[in-house]
Write a structure and sequence with these properties.
This protein is mainly α and 65 residues long. The chain is 46% helix and 0% strand.
């Protein structure tokens, strides 16, 4: 698992400004979110619609995230 984070940018964005943490939060993947947070990803990064990972987790009812 360490190799994944040493060779990848955990804050990479798609064309809409969404990060891996944003997608983990949107999809309800709490375990992946914890891994990304442990790697110091930007937890308050907003997408182009000004939504943070916390916003989308709440919007889709993913309380565990």
């Amino acid at each position: 698992m360490d190799a994944l984070f040493t060779t990848r940018d955990v804050n990479i964005e798609d064309t809409e400004g969404r990060t891996p943490l944003w997608w983990a939060a949107r999809s309800g993947h709490a375990g992946i979110a914890r891994l990304l947070l442990a790697e110091d990803c930007e937890m308050n990064k907003e997408d182009k619609q000004n939504r943070t990972p916390l916003h989308v987790a709440a919007l889709y009812g993913h309380e565990e995230v």
